Amino acid sequence: LKILILNGPNLNLLGTREPAVYGHQTLQDVESLCREEAARHGLQVEFVQSNHEGDLIDALHRARLEADGVVFNPGAYTHTSIALADAVSGIERPVIEVHLSNVHAREAFRHHSFISPVAASVIIGAGVNGYRLGISQLAHLLESAAS
Ligand code: DQA
């Protein structure tokens, strides 16, 4: 089984971007921990980051053909993108929505997610460990689906 870890806009700046909110670990650190966690569950990983909405949509469409599930941090597009929500619905693969920060403790415009209603699970405010939790949850869902 193979999973896609997909990160949206500005997450390439992780580690240097608002470290008080997002911590000091870089996206490369996140990639390493994701590969480690996926290996624990016997899952192959593709790791993609893009700052472009259309590229994220294309990556989701590819996941429909090439992956069994997705762990997705859509960044600020979470709060704006009906197109990404439609892509998540359209691919018929479980998508776990992850946010590093507790978006509900932040500005009101971060309280609404277009992705949550179409996500299989949502993990918020667990920092980079949220990716680990997301992968573990995805492994659980894929195992249940297989049995
Ligand atoms: C984020 C939360 C979003 O509101 C923000 O725009 C991000 C990161 C998070 O991981 O906490 O870019 O998705």
UniProtKB/TrEMBL annotation:
Pathway: Metabolic intermediate biosynthesis; chorismate biosynthesis; chorismate from D-erythrose 4-phosphate and phosphoenolpyruvate: step 3/7. Substrate binds at residues 73, 79, 86, 100-101, 110. It catalyses: 3-dehydroquinate = 3-dehydroshikimate + H2O. Its EC number is 4.2.1.10. The keyword Lyase applies. The record marks 17 as: Transition state stabilizer. The active site is at 22 (proton acceptor), 99 (proton donor). Catalyzes a trans-dehydration via an enolate intermediate. Belongs to the type-II 3-dehydroquinase family. This is 3-dehydroquinate dehydratase. It comes from Zhihengliuella alba. The gene is aroQ.
